[in-house]
Every structure is written in structure tokens, then in C-alpha cells.
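Researcher: Going back to the complex we discussed earlier. I've cleaned up the inputs and rechecked each line, so this should be the final set. Can you rerun the prediction on the complete assembly and write out the structure?
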Amino acid sequence: MQTVDKAVELLGFFSEAQQEFGLSELARTAGFDKASTRRLLLALIKHDYIEQNPATKAYRLGPGVLRLARVREISSPLISITTPLLNELVEQTGESAHFSLLSGERISSVDIVESPKSNRINFVLGEEGPLHATASGIVCLAYGGDALSSRLLRRKLPAYTEYTVTEKTQFADMLHAVRDSGHYINREQYEYDVCSIAAPVFSQTAQPLGAMAVAAPTSRFSKDRQKLILAAVTQAAATASRAMGFKSHTGNS
Amino acid sequence: MQTVDKAVELLGFFSEAQQEFGLSELARTAGFDKASTRRLLLALIKHDYIEQNPATKAYRLGPGVLRLARVREISSPLISITTPLLNELVEQTGESAHFSLLSGERISSVDIVESPKSNRINFVLGEEGPLHATASGIVCLAYGGDALSSRLLRRKLPAYTEYTVTEKTQFADMLHAVRDSGHYINREQYEYDVCSIAAPVFSQTAQPLGAMAVAAPTSRFSKDRQKLILAAVTQAAATASRAMGFKSHTGNS
DNA sequence: TCTGAGTGGTTCATTATTATCACCACCGGT
DNA sequence: ACCGGTGGTGATAATAATGAACCACTCAGA
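Model: Rerun complete. Updated structure for the full complex:
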């Protein structure tokens, strides 16, 4: 079903940052032929998962996706659980908080609550990030099983800043440390002046669904504040996991 | 792209009423081969639009759909507009209100606010209904263009109650009346003891996106209450259309 | 314990599909 | 007029999907 693969892959390119694509533009970013891309889009349009702006001829996500999300959210609530937890995190820490979903070999933010401070970290909803350079990605990777991490480590890890960990044995040690501590502290490994602390959120099946994280500018990332943020984030993530139906086997009965 | 068609068609079967499908069950309802169905599902699973319950082996919508809906809702808000309007409708009328999306030749509810009364009409989120027997469907059909209505009228229209309009010329007259009045009043044409009033919601491109509707038991559907409900529904739908960026050409400049 | 009917899942030869390239019409600047 | 960029289209070569038959398993009933 490579054809289906390609079609749903197209959906993945749309994000808050880029909500519309021209035909050629989308074909280029996806690496598909223009004619094929159009046929794929037509199939998606037929079911309202994509719609075309009749003025600009650009393609964007269609209203059909709303129905799917509503049904999913009823069958297993996620956003309705994370949003209040994120609000609480922002209140406790004063920093922007977000929940990201592990999706294949990428991670994408689906729920964001921003800090009221004027100097804050801003996230882009729906934007995908690399697993190996974000705090959320690293905690997912640590609990995501050998298959996922070894698949990722097979390729050369790109460095985004001078602090990005790309060396494989160092990376493996890091994942061990995450599994021991249950969290990860990212200090400017993806973007300069952005530090964040993430903790994993597990599903009923004990697989990492995603991660909750709080991000702060380096100037507000003192030892004391790290301690505060860490405590808040790990507690919020644990609460979320519990709400998802995850039963911890290490916790007190 | 019949393959993509089939894959996304599978997504359409999931609703609040049926959130999970076994493999054989889904293949049967879709009319596909079991092997093909599984391959399609695997492609969707790869991108987290479907996930498999590891205990029961049943398939359900995956977390990936949440991301899509969030991005869509940012690029053009819909649910966040309809929900407060529906709340207002319930407050004004005391009856259940819902917003449904026109999707192909079916209509499906994506936003529901239920009446506080114990005897109320209950809707199933994400459930698809026929265009020709529901108030929401009929108003969409009236404004959906000749192509849509003639395609639908080509087939024999199934009757759900003795009041369902299935005769083609009568149906055409009905659509004309809707276009004149801007609404439709359904009296037990889909389900006995359920009456509803719907008004269309238009997009920027003046196409019917869907409809807002209020539904009541026949016992609470007096002439006076119809008048009250009608006024509230048409106003709410007009407000929604305006929020979608629709510019009415019949209204006051 | 045997049987049958139902699961979910897999395989591979047959078959129908899709990819690709070249093309068209159009638009906005040179 | 031209160029480089759109969006969109169609025929054929190359590729992918299909589905009957199959396996392993579970459950219910005799």
C-alpha cells in the first residue's frame, strides 16, 4: 500500500506554520510527481480530508478531519486531559508547556499552553520535530523500545546546535539515564536559548504515547527553577498516564 | 487512486456508536477483502491514524487524527465557533442542538450540545445520516448545487418513516422551498417522534459547509415553539456563516 | 475431546492499477 | 515576446494491489 502511504504522508506536511500548499510546492516537499500528488489530493478531497482554496488554488486540511478527532477524543480522551494539566503547569512554573505526540520517527506538538510572560518560548501547533534533539523526543525514544531507537541511530544524527548529542554511545547512555530518572533536561540542544524538561506519557499498553514538557529561556533556567519545573512536569505526566489507563508497576500499590 | 479511496473510506466507518472494529467486521462493513483491509489498516497505522487495541486486536482511530484537527481548527476555526452558538441555542430553546458537516453524499454530526431536559433527543457524535431524510441534510442539499442533488436523486430514496419524502418531484419542490425560506422543518421524516429545524452554514466560498439544527420530541413541537426554535436556529447559523467568512449578498450592505 | 465456525493474519500468482513524462493554458514580470 | 513559474491533463510503460486459499488460534457445543 505504498499509494496509501503517500496519500496520508501528504496530510503530515500541514502544520500551523504551513497551513496551505500549492500543488507544485507540495509535490516538491513530498518528493512525489506533480500528477501523482494531484491524484492523491483528489482522493483525499473526495472525503473532505483536504480542501482546495478556490481563490488561490492552494490545498489545505479539510473539515473531515474534525469528525475523526471528535470520535477519537470520545473513544479515548487525550486533549481534554492534557489541556487542564498544561494550564496547571503554566500556572506553577510561569513557562510555556506543551504536550507532544510520538508519531513514527517524529514528534509533533498537539496541545500548547503559553506562558503569560512576554519573554516566553513559543511552539507551533502540529509542527514536527526530531526525536533526538528535543526533550519530548528523547524521553519517548528512551521508552519506545529497541526497534525505534536502533532504527533512528542507524542514520547519522543531525546537529542543530553545538550541544546536540549526535554520538551514538553517548546517546545510548543518555537514554539509560532517562529510563533511570523518568525525565530529560534539554539544554539548548535543538535551539539556542531554549531549555526544556520533559516526562513521558504512557498509554494503557505501557507504550509511550508522547510527552509533557515545559520550556524556558536559558536565563530563567537556574538550578532552583529546574527543580521546580521538573517536579511539576513529572507529576503532570504521571497524572496524564494514569488518566490514559496506564498502571505503573513501579509505583506504590 | 481507488486504493487511497478505500483507505480513507475505512476511517469513515468509525463513530461514537462504533469506535472499534475487528478485522473481519470492518472488511465486511466496507465490502473489501480481508487481506486488503488489513493492508490498508497497516498503512494507516504507520501514520497513527489507526491504532490496534493489543488486547482485543480490534482497530480504532489513532492519535494522529488529533494533530490534523488541531491544525485545521487553527487554519479555519469551526468547532470553536459552533460550540458557543450551540450552547446558546440549547439555552434559548431548551432542546438538543447540533452542528453537522456535509461530507460527500452523507452528513455527520461533529458538534453536539444536549438539552438539560430528561426527555431529549440524543445524537451520536460522528454518526453519518442520509441527506434526504434529515433537516440538516436537506438544507445542505438545497444549496449544494445541481450536481449533488441530481446525483442523489438518481437513486431510489429509501424511506425511514411514512413521512420520509421519496418522490422526486415533491423532493425538488421541497428544495426550492428551502432556498426561498433559508431553513427546513423536519417532522418525523427520519425517526418517529423526532422533529428538527435546520439552517445552512456557508463557507467563504458560499458553499454549504454543513448545518445547525435543533431537534425536539414531537410533543414539544407546537407552532409557537417552532417559531421560537426557527428564529434561534436561523440566527445561529447566520452568525456561524459570518464567522466562517461568508459574505451574504442578500443581506443589508 | 472432537468438530465447526468464527476469529486475525499471511502468501503469491494473477490482474488491474499507478507513475511518469511530455504536454497545455495561464499568469506576472521582465 | 519571452521566460519561469504556476495548476492541470493524458497515454503508455512500469509497478502495485487483489483475493482465494491457507494457517493458527479460540470459543461453543455435542
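Model: Worth noting: DSSP finds nine helices and nine strands in chain A.
Researcher: Good, that matches what I expected from the previous run.
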